[in-house]
Write a structure and sequence with these properties.
By secondary structure, this protein is of the alpha+beta class. The protein contains four helices and 15 strands. It has one domain (8-245): Creatine Amidinohydrolase. A five-stranded antiparallel beta sheet has the order 8-7-9-14-15, sandwiched between helices. Strands 1, 2, 4 and 5 form a four-stranded antiparallel beta sheet that branches. Helix 1 packs across helix 2 and helix 3 packs antiparallel against helix 4.
Length: 251
């Protein structure tokens, strides 16, 4: 496993890639309402990325045909935007996006409510988002990688949700997907030791029902095996000498 540790200069480039991606997500979030298509979101996200002087890193990645992954309800990740897929009141929609800034990648995902949603579904969104923050409490130099995984699992499991196991987080830098892989479920081993300069994409994917998933015939779209709704929350983070820095979220 070759895990890259970024230099100070590389860290600044990663930081800017993350800041710009947060702008993209903020802009796309303003669009979310009943009546728009998943293709509308994709086209707008692509436009914002390019206006910021960046390149969408998902477009044509291993053949993926869009710039933004737009996944609705039981779609876990990698939903392909379509002109005829119209959002309706009560849906949830996950937007997974990334960009390249001066050769460096950022990656983040948010799940949004479309209008008013069932309170039980809102709870899933809230737990999924909070599980990310529970996980990165352990993302400190000197801790081990799977401390993050175990913290996410410990938080989510009592709610009775299914933690997707077929898809995991990852390292990120000059490539969208780098070592290490970062599971969101409990691991028996400890994993590598975290050191300052590592940049990681931590991304819990949580189903209201089973943890199991299936791939649709398009070769990309992943759905929950029982068709229960699914939420996704992701940020690119930097391991520092202290608290982790969230590169794609500034509060």
């Amino acid at each position: 496993m070759a895990v890259t540790v970024k230099s100070a200069k590389e860290t600044e480039l990663m930081r800017e890639a993350g800041r710009l991606l947060e702008i993209v997500h903020d802009e796309m979030a303003k669009m979310i309402r009943p009546g728009i298509s998943t293709m509308d979101i994709n086209e707008y996200g692509d436009k914002v990325i390019r206006e910021l002087g960046c390149v969408p890193n998902f477009l044509n990645y291993s053949g993926y045909p869009a710039s933004i992954c737009v996944s609705v309800n039981e779609e876990v990740v990698h939903g392909i935007p379509r002109r005829d897929h119209i959002l309706k009141e009560g849906d949830i929609v996950s937007l997974d996006a990334g960009l390249i800034y001066k050769g460096y990648h950022s990656d983040a995902a948010r799940t949004h409510a479309v209008g008013q949603i069932d309170p039980k579904v809102q709870k899933l969104l809230d737990v999924t988002k909070q599980s990310f923050f529970e996980g990165i409490k352990m993302a400190r130099a000197g801790n081990h990688l799977f401390d993050i995984s175990n913290a996410i699992d410990s938080y989510v499991t009592p709610f009775g949700y299914g933690i997707v196991q077929d898809l995991v987080g990852h390292g990120i830098g000059t490539s969208l997907h780098e070592d290490p892989q970062i599971p969101n479920f409990r691991q028996k081993r400890r994993g590598i030791k975290l050191v300052p300069g590592m940049t990681l994409a931590v991304e819990p994917m949580i189903n209201m029902g089973t943890w199991e998933v299936e791939w649709l015939d398009d070769g990309w779209t992943v759905i929950s095996a029982d068709h229960s709704v699914s939420a996704h929350y992701e940020n690119t983070i930097l391991i520092t000498d202290g608290e982790p820095e969230i590169l794609t979220l500034h509060v």
